[in-house]
Design a protein that fits this description.
By secondary structure, the chain is an alpha+beta fold. The protein is built from five helices and seven strands. The protein has helices at 10-17, 23-31, 63-69, 75-95, 109-114; strands spanning 3-7, 35-40, 43-51, 56-61, 102-103, 118-120, 123-125. Helix 1 crosses helix 2 (23-31).
């Protein structure tokens, strides 16, 4: 299994979601801070990054990827992906001197917790 990180492109969000109406949001995410897309064996599986000016993190995962990663036979891939994403998040936070990042559990609560976020009231903080 080969995991590659590439610079996030707005087209990645459209590929992952199938929603062209998210183009403005994707363009904003590309310019608001560091953002990368993750590929396994050449296939785009997710994108994520940080909006530095507001200290928020974001992630987009395709429905196909969510389904694949929830299957037991893919647990090794899931661990590798989560490790790579968490390292990426920590690097962004250090590089941009972000003392706190906020996330909403749009992808899932388990994902937020795996990325090191702790629930405070109804928002996740890292």
């Amino acid at each position: 299994m080969k995991i590659e990180k590439k610079k996030f492109l707005p087209a990645d969000a459209i590929i992952l979601t199938g929603d062209r109406d998210r183009a403005d949001e994707a363009n904003y995410n590309q310019t608001a801070g560091p953002a990368e897309s993750l590929f396994i064996d050449g296939k785009l599986i997710c994108s994520g990054g940080s909006r530095v000016t507001v200290g928020e993190s974001w992630a987009i995962v395709s429905e196909e990827t969510k389904a694949m990663l929830s299957q037991k036979e893919h647990s090794g891939k899931l661990k590798a992906v989560l490790k790579t994403l968490r390292e990426q998040m920590e690097s962004m936070q250090r590089e941009h001197q972000l003392t706190r990042l906020f996330a909403e559990p749009i992808v899932s609560e388990r994902f937020c917790k795996a990325m090191g976020f702790k629930k405070q009231n109804n928002i996740y903080v890292r």
